[in-house]
Predict the 3D structure of the following.
Amino acid sequence: GAVVSQHPSRVICKSGTSVKIECRSLDFQATTMFWYRQFPKKSLMLMATSNEGSKATYEQGVEKDKFLINHASLTLSTLTVTSAHPEDSSFYICSARSSQTSGRETQYFGPGTRLLVL
Amino acid sequence: EDKVVQSPLSLVVHEGDTVTLNCSYEVTNFRSLLWYKQEKKAPTFLFMLTSSGIEKKSGRLSSILDKKELFSILNITATQTGDSAVYLCAVGQGGKLIFGQGTELSVKP
């Protein structure tokens, strides 16, 4: 149980284009999903918290107009990197927290999306 | 400022060795401490600790939390090459997780 998928797993795009990444909880409902960014040899940096049916909460320093988050259902959240630039190249990981488990802090992670902007 | 600090940052051992990974934290509104294992892709959940002094075990892995001294340890006994990974410690704070830098463990045959 507690499987989270992400699509695509890898994407290469040209500078200036937008890229959408999907995060799905496959076998549980997730009222809350999280988006992280991870640089090589570094830990996970929380970008935003996505709540189903409401606006995402962004961490300090994260541009909400650049990283658009939509959480339209209890099993799907999307992150759109708008007008991507080479400095946006990174590993993006989503996680989901079940609305039903007793361990409410536990987050289950997707396999990540490696974005390369040329 | 909230922070989670892991040590050592990297560790190289031989198969069969026992290792201890450390995680200390200074986080307001502490709710829980979690350990994850990250291999090539996303972190996989290992343990969640909320109470001091209660050891959690899963096979060769075990972990314990000390809420007075604000730290946790993750022990791996009889290490195997498959244990090679980055081990992440995270502290739950009001629904969010604050991650440490991770400990990169390399187990040599």
